[in-house]
Amino acid sequence: MLIDPSRLEFPILSQDEQTLVVSKPAGMATELTNDPRGVAMVSRIRRAAKAGVQVRLVHRLDRVTRGVMIVALTKEAAAFYGEQIREGVWEKYYLARIPKPRPEKFPHHAGLIGTHKAHIKEEGTHATIVRAGGKPSFLEILAIEASPGRTNECHVLIRLLTGRLHQIRVMLAALGLPLVGDELYGGAHGPLYLEHVALWYVDCATRDIRLAHVEDDSEREMVAPKMKHALSRIIRR
Q: In whole angstroms, what is the distance from residue 156 CA to residue 217 CA?
């Protein structure tokens, strides 16, 4: 065991000699340029690693986002996963909470379900949608269902097709549906919820297709039965 789970404050979902799969909590930075206290996720993993283990990030989640992450434990694994990301092999699914779409604007969610494209320009720690000059960015909205116990709010299931800074947040805001609590992009007051809920990838060691997902996650928000069904189609395909 290369990473000692007892030294981490978040769950290890699996690990072998090449790959670590974890569930990052909301509010924890994936990585920090200056991290003297070692509070970022990658710093914590390095402290829990055996001597000589080369802990390397191959992707990142925003501080506000919780959910599954792949961490390489060798240089070879980092190169393998980096190439998979560039080739678009990974399938990344997110669950978010947004205001209820207005029926007069989106009758029966017309114009929301399906693939969306935008050009995103990164400006420091902020992202902006521009008409030209930004990076082409794509996501697919798969399902929208009412959020149990939350009046006028919905959960939305998204497949992220590219990985830009704050992509889901800025693209939903451009649709007039910023995440609840996402003050940076105009969201209404309230707790923010964005989860990287499932990731299909090819394992570095075995070359098998694997799923990173927590089946019964106590930190996941309660979702409607139809959303549970949409999630089950992703994880039991």
A: 18
